[in-house]
Amino acid sequence: MYSNRKHPKFANEYIVHWMLANLTQGMGVQINEASQRIDECLLRFMDQLELLEEKRERLNSLIEQGWFSISKARYSMGNKQVSTLQYGNEIEPQVQINVRLLENGEAEFDAQRVECLRSQHLEKDLGRVEDIGPKDEGVRRRGVTKEENPKDQPAAPRACVSRETSPPNQGMSQHQDPLKWFGILVPQSLKQAQASFKKVVELSAEVATLQCTVVATRKELQALMGNKQEETPSTEADKQKDTGNVRQSEEESASDS
Amino acid sequence: MAGRGKLIAVIGDEDTCTGFLLGGVGELNKNRKPNFLVVEKDTSITEIEETFKSFLARDDIGIILINQFIAEMIRHAIDAHMQSIPAVLEIPSKEHPYDASKDSILRRAKGMFSADDFR
């Protein structure tokens, strides 16, 4: 139904039906504002569906590529060398999704690699290194207290050292490449699999955003249609009134004659 | 990092999970709770459903990726989820290609075009 070839046809078919329905309803005289808004919304909805379809196809083909590469890696490494058993004991995410909620209830998803964030943090940290200078005053003050409490002397520098060294160590453990779970010298195909799944992750955020947009547009369309249906009975009643008035005037004119 | 960004959760067969973990999606949190479920032959539907619901309840998950054949097993739970976050994405699996007519989102979109709409 939603295959790439059939989809535009599917869209056009319904748009033609829709336009005809509107024309017949408005007796071919005027397309009122509500109908126009519905038409615009419907066209937007169809465009979004088409885009979603395209992205879906790309996503699916990338996933397939990834599986193929995993299978190749399994063939060269051995059957049980690429399985759940090799997963690391500590797994840290390397991708994060930034979610933004828009006013109309839509959500925007954006995948961001942690390496990018890390480089941003490193830049910030470099900035901080420069800031450390004035803090030396505090150390000097400690030097004054050292004379007062000689027992605390060795403890303070150790604490400082541990604070200084711990963040880089954490960083190393946090951002271990999952590729290393499967060995140090992994085949090229496994690297290819990783590359295609990285792309899939980015694309899946885009697809998720599009899905939200499609759902939101659908709600908008339904609301517009609901409004129009509420309006139509009144216009029909008006028309009936008009025809009633015409009949009355005709009868009056007939009686006069 | 956990404070700002959200995670991608995966419910899928072994190869799907392995692939996405290679892509850097996986996480084992402080309670050793993973953000993925490897569905094997002996995995029960209730287990899948409970895991899916636990992912829905977690506020650090932004997108849930699920193999379509697994989504079919817990279709009622997926259809019941109407919020935009977390977004549920159905993906193909090795044995089962992606079928758009089964996808919850597209089914909802298609359901719009009933005969009544064109009167």
What's the structural blueprint in terms of helices and strands?
The complex is a heterodimer of chains A (257) and B (119).
Chain A: H1 6-25, H2 33-77, E1 95-101, E2 107-113, H3 114-148, H4 155-174, H5 188-256
Antiparallel strand pairs in A: 1-2
Helix pairs in contact in A: 1-2, 2-5
Chain B: E1 7-12, H1 14-22, E2 36-38, H2 45-57, E3 61-67, H3 68-73, H4 75-80, E4 87-91, H5 104-110
Parallel strand pairs in B: 1-2, 1-3, 3-4
Word description of this protein:
The complex is a heterodimer of chains A (257) and B (119). Chain A has helices spanning 6-25, 33-77, 114-148, 155-174, 188-256; strands at residues 95-101, 107-113. In chain A, strands 1-2 form a two-stranded antiparallel sheet. Mean pLDDT of chain A is 72; it is low at 1-6 and 150-173. Chain A has 257 residues and is mainly alpha-helical. With 119 residues, chain B is an alpha/beta fold. Chain B is built from five helices and four strands, in the order E-H-E-H-E-H-H-E-H. A four-stranded parallel sheet of chain B has the order 2-1-3-4, sandwiched between helices. In chain B, helix 1 links the parallel strand 1 and strand 2. Chain B starts with 6 loop residues before the first strand and ends in a 9-residue tail after the last helix. The model of chain B has no long low-confidence stretch (mean pLDDT 86).
What is the string of helix and strand elements of chain A?
A: HHEEHHH
Instruction: Enumerate how many helices of chain A there are, as a single number.
Output: 5
In percent, how helical is the residue content of chain B? 25-40%
Distance between the termini of chain B: 52 Å
**Spatial arrangement of strands, main beta sheet of chain B:** 2-1-3-4
Shape of chain A: elongated
Order of helices and strands of chain B: EHEHEHHEH
Q: Could you describe the largest sheet of chain A, including whether it forms a barrel?
A: 2 strands, antiparallel
Q: What pair of chains forms the biggest interface?
A: A-B, 67 and 48 residues
Give the N-to-C terminal Cα separation of chain A.
65 Å
Strand percentage of chain A lies at: 5-15%
- Uncertain segments of chain A are 1-6, 150-173
